[in-house]
Amino acid sequence: MSTLGIFHHDYTDLRAGIDDNGQPWFAAADVAKFLGHASAKDMVRSLDDDEKGGRLVPTPGGEQELTVVTEAGLYRAIMLRQTGRMAEAQATAIKAFQRWVTHEVLPSIRRTGSYSAPVQSDDEIVARALQITAARVQALEAKVAEDAPKVLFADSVATSQTAILVGDLAKILKGNGMDIGGTRLFELLRNDGYLIRRQGTDRNMPTQKAMELGLFRVKETAVTHSDGHVTISKTPKVTGKGQAYFVNRYIGQPTRQAVAS
């Protein structure tokens, strides 16, 4: 069973310890939270097998297995987490965590085998609690401000009955900061599995997945030719739900080089 310690940082705690071989480990869920991942599963998926694992730790309910990352896994997770495209507040918090781990936590573990926090007076404990509360409020306010444009857009179009052409969706994305046009958007949607890629009469039609998600509808138009025969022209149109979906998916993402299909 591994030795478990709790490292206090701002308004979140980091569980860590030393295994039977004297090697540091860190709770994957806590590291993922510090680095802004949606879940520990998302973070450890990118790590090699020798950079992650499980440790038995004592809890009030008995021993439990905890998903952890090794010291190498921690460094890898930090290096993989790019802050350049994040909101400034989140990027600053992650960089502060990185510095705290490398300048305080790891040196303390190597010196003493644990993290030694200074003894705090009652006044210091109250001050820290107030600081934690203020930090949480500030983080929530920043998140609300960051998400506001996206939420407003989603509310305005998600229930809309008006479906638009893919080219018009490209204009919306471009107006929200994505460098893309109609041709490139068709290619992106094909590569991401929303439109059919194969050559044929159904090329650029919505895939089964996209239709099941309600992202498109297909407009059919009867075309009468000069010799009198009639054919059906099909055009994919993006529903209101689809418009909100693709804005949420693509806005803020790095510009991607589409692969020729």
From TrEMBL:
<dbReference type="InterPro" id="IPR003497">
    <property type="entry name" value="BRO_N_domain"/>
</dbReference>
<dbReference type="GO" id="GO:0003677">
    <property type="term" value="F:DNA binding"/>
</dbReference>
<dbReference type="Pfam" id="PF03374">
    <property type="entry name" value="ANT"/>
</dbReference>
<dbReference type="Pfam" id="PF02498">
    <property type="entry name" value="Bro-N"/>
</dbReference>
<feature type="domain" description="Bro-N">
    <location>
        <begin position="11"/>
        <end position="113"/>
    </location>
</feature>
<dbReference type="InterPro" id="IPR005039">
    <property type="entry name" value="Ant_C"/>
</dbReference>
<protein>
    <submittedName>
        <fullName>Phage antirepressor Ant</fullName>
    </submittedName>
</protein>
